[in-house]
Amino acid sequence: MNKYWIPHLDIHKKVITQELQFYLGPDATVRPYTREGEDGFLITTPGACLTDEQIDDICLKSKEMWEKQAAARSQLDPDKPLKRPLHQPVLISKGSGEGSKR
């Protein structure tokens, strides 16, 4: 079995899981995998890996999936405010009003 790694950029986990065997056959598997600190997917298959066109198709279907999920969330409660970003800075302490002096 051959093992290939592809980055997760623009690829929805559910989409690649659903589409992989269609492209590579029933023996192909995919799982999340981190390579040299970068998240992606490890594809195991008896043959060649995905072609550029197949990856483009998976990326397009992933975008459609994210758009459907976003539309479904916005319809649940359209007046609900959006959550703050995950990496919103949190003020721990504030210096004097004169600016930073070092």
Name the overall outline: flat
Order of helices and strands: EHEEH
Overall strand count = 3
Helix content: 25-40%
- Counting helices, strands and paired strands, the structural category is alpha+beta
Strand content: 15-25%
Q: Note the total helix count.
A: 2
Mean of the pLDDT scores? 82
Order of strands in the sheet with most strands:
1-3-2
What Rg is obtained from the alpha carbons, in whole angstroms?
21 Å
Which regions contain 5 or more consecutive residues with pLDDT less than 50? none
Features of this protein?
102 residues, three-stranded antiparallel sheet, 2 helices, 36% helix, 21% strand, flat
Fold and architecture overview:
By secondary structure, the chain is of the alpha+beta class. It has one domain. The chain is 36% helix and 21% strand. It has two helices and three strands; from the N terminus they run βαββα. It has a three-stranded antiparallel β-sheet with strand order 1-3-2. Helix 1 packs antiparallel against helix 2. It starts with a strand and ends in a 26-residue tail after the last helix. The model has no long low-confidence stretch (mean pLDDT 82).
